[in-house]
Amino acid sequence: MYVAALLALLLLLLPWPAGAIVYVRMKNERGPTAARAGVGCLELLSDTYLHTTQSVQIESIVIFFVRRMSSPAREILLGYLQQHHTGYDEEQELGTTEQSNFQLKLMSDTRPADDGERRLAQFLDYKLTDYYVIVIDRFEALGRALARLSSTASFNPRGKFIVLYNNPNDRDSDSRLAHRVLLLLFIDHHAVNVLVAFAFDAVSYSVYTGDPYHGTDCGQMKPLKVATVVNGSFTSPVLAAAMINIPKVPPEMEACTFLLCTRVAPPFIDLDCRRGLELQIMDLLRESMKFGVRVSCSEMDRGELTDDGNWTDLLGMMRADECDIIAGGFNPDFDVHEEFGATTLYLQDTHTWFVPKAGPDARWKLLLQIFEVTTWQLFGCVLLISACVWRGVGQFLPESDAHRELSMCVLNTWCVFLCISCHNRPVCHALRLFFMALALYALNVTTIYTSILITILTNPPHAYQVDTIEELLAAGVPIGGRVDSEDWFMNDFEDDRLVSERYNVSSEFQPSLGNLQAVLEGRRSLLISRLYVRNTKYYGLLHGLTQDVFVTQIEMIVEKGFPLLPKFNRILSNLIAMGIVEKLWQDFVHNVTILDRIRRNRALSEEEIMAASPEVVLTVGHLQSAFALYGIGMCLCVVVFLLEVVSKTRCVGRWRRSTEDTWDGLYSFRLPETSPLSVALTTVCPGRDDPGVAPRWWVQHEGRYIAAHANGSQFYRSCAQRGLYHVVVSMADRLPAAGGCSYRLSYNRKGAEEFRNWPYRNLSAPSRIKVQQQRRRYVVTIKWEKSKLDIHVMNYCLAVSTGRRQRTLCQALGNSIHRPACDTIDVNDYLHRLSPREERKLDAAAETTIVCTGTRTRQVIRGMKPNATYYVDVFAIHSQHNNLSFLLGSTQVQLNRTRPTQLVEGKIVVGKLSTLGGISLFSFKVPKRSPNSFFKLHLTPCGGTVNLEVLKKKRRIMEVVRDVYYPRTVTVRNVRPGERYLIRVHEADETARLNRIQVAVSARDDFHELPRMPHNTTITELVPLRKCHSSTIAWFGSPEKDVTYCVYVFKLPKTQYYNNVKIPTYCELESRDVCNHPQFHNKHCFNGNEYNPLSLDIPNLLPEHYYTVFVTAISARGRSLPYKSVRIKTSPFCLESNQILPDGPIGHGGKGSLKTGATGAYRKLGGQRRRNTATVSTKNAGLSVKGTLKRSRKRPDAPKQSV
């Protein structure tokens, strides 16, 4: 090859005749050069991307051969296959140890994959494939290849894919075709680890990858160009390798929201879909990875595979991309694992048949089951013999007639048997001795009977309990359960076959409270989880068979290519190893068995508690015969009573007339407010000077006597409670001589005070009240003037009300939360118990709060709600005269709050969170002529973490955006032009106080006068380029052309690096004093609009030190927006002992490299000192598109510049 090149050079140097013609041949797009370039591109991408250092086994690679491909795509695939099929060179360079050996698999679409071949492939090839290489010349061929690959059991959506596209007739649709390829793999096959190489000429390829989980539009596939390959080599090897291997799934996914579809299955998913063991585990996963979850709840089952190859219920929803994750107590299933992925097993559940729990035996039998039948017969014989002996002894002895009648003797004996007092006591000593012996016998028997009765009532015997499946089947009760549990009985065992024949999967046999009620009533039996029953109110009412039917593990189900599945499994394994899952289980058992029982018992009244303990309380069931006899006796009494009434009508008439004369008079009135009360009873006798004798009368309040009867005419209470009052006047004591006299009853509560006629009371002028508000702390200070009347003995009390003013101190006491019994306590005595305090918090549950200050005329009130009206009344209380108080002054207080800040498009508004106690409010009105149904918010927290809420008429229109700790753009959708929306920003961490936040708004796609930011605003440190005195960062540039980038570097101590402390904040970057910050290192500004992504080498760093780097994008109008900051650190050791940092250009030189003079000013030589406030700005300097950040070993002769 060297000889051919030398000959060609000699021919060019030969003299050519003047009339010679030189023919220029076009570049051959299908020749061997293009094929070698394509094979080299595939080999380069394979070496860079298809490599895992953590693998302990030989990795597998599938090279797919697409039929009817054109040149050079066919030659590229055959060349790449030939190199991998023939192996690698045995003559490797000395000292090289790296080998990339793969288990090669070749697949093709030359023959259709029928069902038989597909099943054979699934049986033989069960190991998941690691890498895929596909070469195509048209997009349709990729669909056929993926359909063929996904039909096998070894298809791995999380594997790495390399798709090379080479079509000489298509050189311009690189980004569009890459987007189509990435969408096809992402949407249809859930694959994200994809590289697409597009040939834009014969030997050059543009390499694209997908970015679906970075930026604000999570879940939307965005093609990113990460490298350019020319003749089998990267134009920027280090930068391309770093960009290609950036993880597709970030460690934190704040902008991503996944759909969790759940099945109601307590205790894993409760009925309200707000609590449950699996929801708690999902919360732990969400907090670990910072993603959002939208939970939907349903009664659907997991789903089964139909004959047409589709899935039903929740699995069908997942296959239709309506769910990302499904949960609800699902157990592993082989058929499901063939089509879907599953998490690590984290809980277990047991299933058994549930039947009604056998209750206590018939209660009326308990009284008889204490003794055997022969014992009861013996008791009857003893009773009869004792009665006969009693009568016989009474006949022969001089006893009374009661001891000689058989009926009386039987009654007396029965009373003694029951240990009841008997009035007919014997007189003779012989019968007395017999009575004593019989009483001792009865006492012994009764004691034994009572003790055994208490034991039986405490632990009553139960009826027979069904506890085996054979007894359940013999009883003929319908049985059934979930569909996915029926597989356990489809086998050759006789018992399981009988269960399978009677197994019912209808809605009446699914887990629900209504079906559990049917089980309690004995209408059916369910195969259900023990944990489900334990989490319901039927726990303890239903009996589960002792032998469990099956025990299963619990898992969550996702698609095989779900990107978070490996991290889910790793986090779940750590949670299980640390015992957190076991802690959740123990908390559930504690809540169900102890806390719920305590909560239910607290809500029960005493009667309900007694009713809930039927074992220790006698009921009608225990005493059916006693109540029956009692009822018969009552009926006989009623019949005799009616007969007597009918037979004695005259007596009844006289009794009625006599009772009318002695009937008492009842009068009622109601006090709407607590106030003084005065009731007077006066006698009026026309034509007589003597008023006569006043009758006796009483006063009742709510059915309770508050005054004893008296013959006086006046009743007075200085402070009576509100409510219904009754005045009862006895007319039985009316004398006949009082004929013609009438009685007048009146009550008066207007001015009915003891000191209403005190002459000096009206001399007191109203006091002026001053109010000082502290809106930030919800604190109000109230001051007033002292009373002009008896200034030295006056005490003061405040009444703060939310509904109305208080006219008297008695009324205020009645409306307070500590309402006293005003008829039995003096006002002064009650107020003396309220110790004065300088500060008092309002009672939220009370209409009026009373605060006594003693002799002070100043009080601090806390706990007032904003925009609410409070009425403040000051009362003066005489300390030497009881019940003397009057209104000194009144005022009205309303705690106003700051209005929301108006947002204007194109302007950055700074909100203070300290004004409203950690909350900042903004208001934005969408322009009426806006063509869009959305607006964007750009939030920049000035240190700390905030949460964002968007409301319309006090209702949220979107989910709360939580944990915003870096500059972030939030899109608010489904808005209407002309309407106003409230934006509420509050601190996420109450312990860390955040002072300010910057907010910008726009109703368009971009922000007016602000630079356009990329979807991914993350700054990445290129770790392979990390040196002891420098480090390299890379980021995506703005889509705009004229944008300036400024890089700020701040030195961090080691403690701040690991404690996640940002110094300074994002808002301090535009400050003029940022260079004077004690930890400022340097600053660099340049224009880099021609290349994307951008990179920058940061020199002049110290070995093994930590730095925080900020990048801001500045538009041509001078407005700037920051990127997400990054923390970097330098290498602890230098590779070369005599290393001197160069001042040469970055990259290969060219358009994108920095100028020598500027670079020399930015770098420092060995031994130089860095000044803390050094700042260098280089205009119109960018980065090379190649991105190779090499350092020149020879220092160019450049003039030294001071830093």
From TrEMBL:
GO CC annotations on file: extracellular region
The keyword Lipid metabolism belongs to this UniProt entry's keyword annotation: no
Transmembrane segments: 433-457, 627-647
Official protein name in the record: Uncharacterized protein
Gene3D superfamilies listed in its UniProt record: 1.10.287.70
InterPro entries given in the database record: FN3_dom, NDNF, NDNF_C, NDNF_Fn(III)_1
Species this chain originates from: Anopheles dirus
UniProt main location, coarse: secreted
